[in-house]
Amino acid sequence: MSHGTTTLAFMFQGGVIAAADTRSSCNGLVACPASQKILPVHSHLVGTTSGTSADCALWKRILARELRLYQLRHGRRLSTAGAAKLLAHMLHPFKGTELCVAATLCGWDGGEVETCPLEHGSKGADQQENRSMMGSETDDLAKTAESDSISQAEARGKNQCLSPAMSGQHCTAGGKQLVLSGPSLYYVCSDGTRLQGALFSVGSGSPYAYSVLDGGVRWGLTVEEAISLAREAVYRATHRDAYSGNCVDVYHITSHGWTRRDREELREEYYREKERERVKVKERREKQEGVEDGQSSGGNKLN
């Protein structure tokens, strides 16, 4: 099966934008023109998917289940870094098989307060003993990922990175911990690769999308500018990549959760592009005619 798609995600001052086309292909056949390539995981986390559709859907459900169990045990959501590390650990045993999953996890961390457990609390000890083996392994991975994300946030804060929100906080006061706050973006592959960044594009159309995103993405974008940029990047990719096309889905993730924009056909972007070109040609023609009129009137005065 040919894996052709265009998915992208980037961070800006208003959160995270994720966009993807909707064409699913099988060899030279357009198997589905309206597939869903951005899959919600929980209220503040979505994942763009590239690879085999069945594998991506299955592992999305597995990840959503584990994150829901973690939330029920601890009373808070697992961070995006923890979710990415958990997914990478679950996928790594399948390295070298025909499993094909390439996901970009786009989330917003923070806004939750966790009560620190008491050292001699019998209730907490009983709950710890009653956990299942799978739950214990998941919690261990989650705790490791949380500590990694804390150290990464401290390093980012020291280096004064692109976003003030990315520096995050992990304070302890009055027996309570504040979870890291801000947008977060991770790429996870089926071989266990896990990468953190501010911009990712995955799929056969990604080289064309990067050419637009590299020149347009900046931290100070407004929401409408970011959405327009993501839509244009997908449009440019589908214009050159035969395995991408049909429509574009756009998701916006903020501190209030994710929201989905109305699905838009890429031909609408094509019509807008043609209209912009028509306006530019008209302006150039009018400018040229004005110059010619000025030259002719100047020649008449000399005569």
From TrEMBL:
Instruction: Report keywords, A-Z.
Output: Cytoplasm, Nucleus, Proteasome, Signal
Keyword Cytoplasm tagged: yes
- The signal peptide annotation in the UniProt record is 1-18
Q: Pfam families, alphabetically?
A: Proteasome
Positions of the region Disordered? 119-147, 274-303
- Give the compositionally biased regions (Polar residues): 294-303
Q: Provide GO CC annotations from the record.
A: cytoplasm; nucleus; proteasome core complex
Where it sits in the cell: the answer is: Cytoplasm; Nucleus
According to its UniProt entry, the protein's GO biological process terms are: proteolysis involved in protein catabolic process
Determine the domain of life of the protein's source: Eukaryota
Q: Where is the composition biased (Basic and acidic residues)?
A: 120-129, 274-290
* PANTHER family linked: METALLOPROTEASE TLDD, PROTEASOME SUBUNIT BETA
Quaternary organization: Component of the proteasome complex.
Say which family it is in: Belongs to the peptidase T1B family.
Q: What does this protein do?
A: Component of the proteasome, a multicatalytic proteinase complex which is characterized by its ability to cleave peptides with Arg, Phe, Tyr, Leu, and Glu adjacent to the leaving group at neutral or slightly basic pH. The proteasome has an ATP-dependent proteolytic activity.
What name has this protein been given in UniProt?
Answer: Proteasome subunit beta
Q: Which organism is it from?
A: Coregonus suidteri
